[in-house]
Amino acid sequence: MKTRITMVVSLLAATVIGLQVHAQSSSSGDVTRSSYAPDDPSLAVATFAGGCFWCVEEGFEKIPGVVEAVSGYSGGDEVDPTYKQVSSGQTGHTEAVKVYYDPETITYQGLLQGFWRFMDPTDADGQFVDRGQQYRPAIFYHNDRQARLARESKKALAESGRYDEPVVIEIVPFEAFYPAEEYHQDYSDKNPIRYNVYTFNSGRYQFIDEVWGDDQKLDFSQFKPREGDDAMSNDAGSGAMSGTGFDPDTYTRPNDAVLRERLTEMQYEVTREDATEPAFDNEYWDEKRAGIYVDVVSGEPLFSSSDKYKSGTGWPSFVRPIREGILVRKRDESWLGVRTEIRSKYADSHLGHVFEDGPAPTGLRYCMNSAALRFIPKDQMADAGYGEFVDEVGPPRS
């Protein structure tokens, strides 16, 4: 079975670049090993395999909150194996990456969503041009919480309809990890030309473009733990908070000084000062994807895409909230007459107004400000803690 380095050589028809890479891999046994783990006990740890560890390492190091990603080997029985041994396919190991991340900056759910966007979870026999069990994808969970979140995320991905083939990536307990040789670490930075040649010919990013399209660019801010969130992460013994939905029993809205730092100027003016954003020049007025809309301050669920319709006003409009009793109505006499203002129940955010000129079945138009909302696509809802609403979410009405 060809190793990845040998495959690069064949793809380049034995060019100088390919020969240099091959020569370097041949001397792997002479490379001195060392520990690459950051000396910071507050960091959380996760381990993933998605084929070529050069690519997986680079992918994770682009995610906000990832402090270090280390290339290595996991999933087999051989102790302290070399690249030559693993690439032969005889050790049971697969190329893997150990990720050290700040749980106060990014949640494990965020890492999972990033991971899906630079690998193929439908191929258990390798990844792209690299074939064999030494390139099989896997999620190696370090605790029960990671196992649960990984399984929920895999299930949501499988049900999203994004792939033509079944999602078959294995989710197994973490047992051991052996760092790869020095020259494999940060390979994309140290050898950009060779790395780019390999990735271009591997088919990885062509596949990602086809499957994810514009959705491959992820807003990781939705997976940043927020002050006042209730759910506590077990990833690091630091009590860091994770994005696991909204619990009204424990939620406390941060003070305005904190919100001024966290929110954009427009978000603050809308939610705290009752402003109205410009029509046709806001984030969600023409949003067509399936998903849920939550309060940008608290995360409390507000509207489903299934109830969104094109009102022609230039603001996101809905026929009803996702649940009865989650919105607060107030009399508003601030604009040449009387209107009914809509605010969120727990964060007391100004959201917009409701009018009696909407379509069936309610005849109502909940005209909202995008700046007061955060949109979570349907295939990310389970990871973000809104799995209970998935069945209620579909494409917009018009």
Please tell me about this protein's structure:
This protein has 398 residues and is of the alpha+beta class. The protein folds into 2 domains: 213 residues, Peptide methionine sulphoxide reductase MsrA (Peptide Methionine Sulfoxide Reductase, Chain A, 2-Layer Sandwich), CATH 3.30.1060.10; 137 residues, Beta Complex (Metal Binding Protein, Guanine Nucleotide Exchange Factor, Chain A), CATH 2.170.150.20. It is 26% helix and 20% strand. It starts with a helix and ends in a 14-residue tail after the last helix. About 12% of the residues have low confidence. Keywords: Multifunctional enzyme, Oxidoreductase, Signal.
How would you describe this structure in keywords?
398 residues; alpha+beta; Metal Binding Protein, Guanine Nucleotide Exchange Factor, Chain A; 2 domains; 17 strands; 20% strand
Low-confidence stretches: 5-34, 228-243
Strand content: 15-25%
CATH superfamily of the largest domain: Peptide methionine sulphoxide reductase MsrA
Q: In the CATH scheme, what's the topology name of the largest domain? A: Peptide Methionine Sulfoxide Reductase, Chain A
What is the typical, i.e. mean, pLDDT? 85
Active site: 52
GO molecular function: L-methionine:thioredoxin-disulfide S-oxidoreductase activity; peptide-methionine (R)-S-oxide reductase activity; peptide-methionine (S)-S-oxide reductase activity
InterPro entries: Met_Sox_Rdtase_MsrA_dom (IPR002569), Met_Sox_Rdtase_MsrA_sf (IPR036509), Met_Sox_Rdtase_MsrB_dom (IPR002579), Mss4-like_sf (IPR011057)
Family: Belongs to the MsrA Met sulfoxide reductase family.
